[in-house]
Amino acid sequence: MNKILIIDDDGRLVKNVQTYLKDFDYRIEFAFNGMEGLQKVKEFKPDLIILDLMMPGLDGLEVLKEIRKDNPVPIIMLTARGEESDIVACLEVGADDYLTKPFSLRELAARVKAQLRRTAPRTGLPSTKENPLVLGDLTIDPLKREVHKKKRKIELTNTEFNLLWILASRPGVVFSRDRLLEEVRNRELELFDRSIDAHISNVRKKIEDSPKNPRYILTAWGTGYKFGEE
Description:
Blueprint (H helix, E strand, L loop, with lengths): L2 E5 L3 H12 L4 E5 L2 H11 L3 E5 L7 H8 L7 E5 L4 H10 L3 E4 L4 H12 L16 E3 L2 E4 L4 E4 L2 E3 L3 H11 L6 E2 H9 L7 H15 L9 E4 L3 E4 L3
Parallel strand pairs: 1-2, 1-3, 3-4, 4-5
Antiparallel strand pairs: 6-7, 7-8, 8-9, 10-12, 11-12
Helix pairs in contact: 2-3, 4-8, 6-7, 6-8
């Protein structure tokens, strides 16, 4: 049974989400502020977190930063304003997905399911017979969903791993931002280009010796991204 933690100061929303998601056989816990949420992350060890951006005291962005110091758990952010700057800030810190309030509980459930399906085949991912890829000093294991660099494990979020796997599976092939969005998310989205840019930036910070002069994930100017062929 997957464990989901909801961190939001809106008691009515938490109750509605909890009631709806319980029908999918999830175990649900909740917290009504950031500090309580961080404590629940340690104690409950959730498989997924639904995190509100706008909370009094320790806000969602600060909670996200703290979690991402040592935990790659999938995180779906909830934002009331839906402004691009808020969304990009969340993605740059390491959020996997976001929803703008008010939102459909059915859509939230679909996104939760998609994030939890960590080991299921993704649309558009090339077949590699599930063997690990060894590229330079990187080893990418699709079954364990693990990445190692020089034998050191690198923690990637669900979305970051998917992006890296898509690009690394086909070195030299240029993927547009729209195509990456479709393949990573497995659905049509109205997202903007900078959401992909934020995730790519995070991956580079984790796998590249020099993120500003990348060796692995290269920019195809005016188009998108590709994985280096060398």
